[in-house]
Amino acid sequence: MQRFMITGGYRLAGTVKVSGSKNATLPIMAASLLLDEKCILRGVPRLRDVEVMRDLLVYLGASVIWEKDVMYIDTQGVGYQDVSEELMRRMRASNLVLGPLISRYRFARISYPGGCDIGSRPMNLHLKGMQAMGVGIKEKFGYITAETEKLKGSEIYLDLPSVGATENIMMAAVLAEGKTVIRNAAREPEIVDLQNFLNCIGARVKGAGTDTIKVVGVDGLNGTDYTVIPDRIEAGTHMVAAAITRGDVVVTNVIPEHLEPVINKLREAGVYVEVKDEQVRVSMDKKPKAIDIKTMPYPGFPTDMQPQFMALTTLAEGTSIISETIFENRYKHVMELRRMGADIRLEGHTAVVKGVPGISGTLVEASDLRAGAALVLAAMASENGTVVDKVDHIDRGYERLENKYNALGARIIRVHN
Ligand code: UD1
């Protein structure tokens, strides 16, 4: 495991460019399994999770060439639909291959996936959707086997708007017979991006971005050249980094509409945010005001930004209330922030954060991706040095975060143990 040594107290200033979206890239790479042709993806971020999905495609028989942010995927050689436990354990999003494999081959076998340690994260909704399409599901010894002779379109109601279940069912429906309607679908921008990709390869998908998605099954698909959207969570993280260090940062390659809840909460905290076409400028010269946050499915406040905002509120004027409604266990950063001097009390799914005048560096541990990012932000705002351990978690979702922040004036050294 690697660690960051961070010297706090430096204001971030300058311009930072956001990479392509991790959570859009992963389902789109999985969707390439629907094809019996080549496709080109652009704007692919250099992330550990993307490497895992690349390894997964290669394991299944695809050929993948990845040069800078362009990925050339050829899925003609795929002949295997049984995914190793090792690959599944490395990343929860590996489960996104289930939908495309069942659509193309009518068979798939995967082990229960791993991923961030932020809650139980079941797959019941993914499986319920596939069963409604006529897929037989067997769960045994930690493996899920999905099989059908006839994959047929169906009406599916999701009990809650799960992002992964929406994506998996959309992909399963692409080569099914007839029409599939997904109700109470998740509305995240990454789902719209998946729809756009699917339509580029010849699928017939409508409604992503609303709570009803309709997919009409087709017989054949074609290759494409597609650019993924920028990462709204990376953008949001940089915006909080600017605010917490009382800096002045222009964040480029963003789609501001995707950032509305983040922009609104920053403004509520007294942060100056200026929005232009594809960039936002964030500046701050005082203590933030306390704010209340409740995580919700899109277009609500994203759970993936909760830890970073908690870091900001530790230094606010007054008491902030943060409620996590998506993942029951997403408070691992609380203990670490407390070690840095934050005043946070947990009451069930709610965190009561009483702003303190300052926080100080110590040895802390990144328990998951966004918790790790929150610790980096807190460390940059702290009064002295901090060691953030296990930054491999951060590398799952941020492309060399230390280089981006050092270019803005931070002092972060990566140490290889
Ligand atoms: C995706 C994102 C992740 C983000 C999350 C919520 C990717 C690769 N990851 O994860 O970064 O934090 O959305 O915005 O896009 N649930 C069930 N049954 C299911 C599926 C989910 O009960 O079958 C529950 C989960 O336990 C969780 C909630 O639904 O409480 C939301 O999960 P979901 O939207 O599925 O998240 P992911 O797709 O795993």
Side-by-side strand order of the widest sheet: 21-22-1-23
Overall morphology: elongated
Q: What is the makeup of the main sheet?
A: 4 strands, mixed
User: How would you classify the helix and strand content by structural class?
Assistant: alpha+beta
Show unreliable segments: none
Explain this structure:
With 417 residues, the protein is α+β, with helices and mostly antiparallel strands. The chain contains 14 helices and 23 strands. A hairpin with a 5-residue loop joins strand 11 and strand 12 (212-216). Helix 8 (232-244) packs parallel to helix 10. The model has no long low-confidence stretch (mean pLDDT 95). The protein binds uridine-diphosphate-N-acetylglucosamine.
Question: How are the SSEs ordered, and which strands pair?
Answer:
Elements: E1 2-7, E2 13-17, H1 22-31, E3 38-42, H2 48-59, E4 63-67, E5 70-74, H3 85-90, H4 98-105, E6 107-111, H5 124-132, E7 136-140, E8 143-147, E9 155-157, H6 163-173, E10 179-183, H7 189-200, E11 204-206, E12 212-216, E13 225-227, H8 232-244, E14 248-252, H9 260-268, E15 272-275, E16 279-283, E17 293-294, H10 306-313, E18 319-323, H11 332-339, E19 343-347, E20 350-354, E21 363-365, H12 369-381, E22 385-389, H13 392-395, H14 401-406, E23 411-416
Parallel strand pairs: 2-14, 3-13, 9-10, 17-18, 21-22
Antiparallel strand pairs: 1-22, 1-23, 3-5, 4-5, 6-8, 7-8, 10-12, 11-12, 14-16, 15-16, 18-20, 19-20
Helix pairs in contact: 1-2, 1-7, 4-6, 5-6, 6-7, 8-10, 8-12, 10-12, 11-12
Bound molecules: uridine-diphosphate-N-acetylglucosamine.
